[in-house]
Amino acid sequence: MADVTGSCLCGSVAFRITGPMEKPLNCHCTNCRKQHGAAFRSRIRVHEDHFEWLKGEELIKFYESSPGFRRGFCSNCGTPVVNRPGGPGYKRFALNPHAASELGIPMGILDGEPDIEPKMHVFVENKAPWFEITDDLTQYETLPKSFDPEDFA
User: Fold this and answer.
1) Residue predicted with more confidence, 67 or 117
2) Rg (Cα) of the chain, in Å, rounded?
3) Are strands 60-66 and 69-74 parallel, antiparallel or unpaired?
4) Which of 121, 107, 104 is closest to 26 using CA atoms?
5) Domains and CATH numbers, the chain
6) Which end of the chain is more exposed for a tag (fewer CB within 10 A), N or C?
7) Which of 27-31, 64-68, 71-75 comes out lowest in average pLDDT?
8) Cβ partners under 8 Å of residue 32, min gap 6
9) What is the pLDDT of residues 24-58, one digit of tens each?
10) What SS3 class is residue 50?
11) Is-contact 5 103, C-beta < 8 A?
12) Whole-angstrom Cα distance, residue 3 to residue 19?
């Protein structure tokens, strides 16, 4: 896999992904919709060992939107850049014990045309009432009980 880069709107923050991009999905939860100002957030997960800041890491400011889940954005332009789960209150560790070492990256800030696309919709119970899902991707009312690799095939 070739390295993938990404950056914020103003270009002050940039990063490189050097390993697999995993679990691509569209999240319709209220927090993701508010963070992105959109009907949903398309995101990937990347193991933190496969993520490298190229510039601007010091510009990232984090907001804890729910216990143990921190949403990072560029303090210059406001672009959502990286979500970092972890901490004692993070309830999804029971579903995914590896979550503490994974970063959530919005697909919309990736440069070029990376070879990845969302495989499912999650938290559809919270989707924007004015948005209709028209694709054939699997829809989950909440979060799938597991993130089995077959779910993303």
Assistant:
1) 117
2) 15
3) antiparallel
4) 121
5) 4-152 (3.90.1590.10)
6) C
7) 64-68
8) 40, 41, 43, 123
9) 999 999 999 999 999 999 999 999 999 999 999 99
10) helix
11) no
12) 7
| Residue carrying the six token digits 């924007």 | 128
Q: Which residues pair with 92 in a beta bridge?
A: none
Confidence tier at 66 by pLDDT (50, 70, 90) = confident
Burial classification of residue 100, based on how many CB atoms lie within 10 Å of its CB (0-12 exposed, 13-18 middle, 19 or more buried): middle
Q: Provide the pLDDT for residue 65.
A: 85
Q: What's the token pair of residue 27?
A: 């999240």
Looking at mean pLDDT, say which of 8-12, 81-85, 86-90, 95-99 comes out highest: 8-12
The SS3 call for residue 78 is coil
- For residues 148 and 153, give the distance between their C-alpha atoms in angstroms, rounded to a whole number: 9
Tell me the three state secondary structure of residue 48: helix
Q: Where are the alpha helices (DSSP H) in the chain?
A: 30-36
Going by C-alpha positions, the residue among 95, 113, 116, 112 that lies closest to residue 42 is: 116
Predicted pLDDT of residue 93: 45
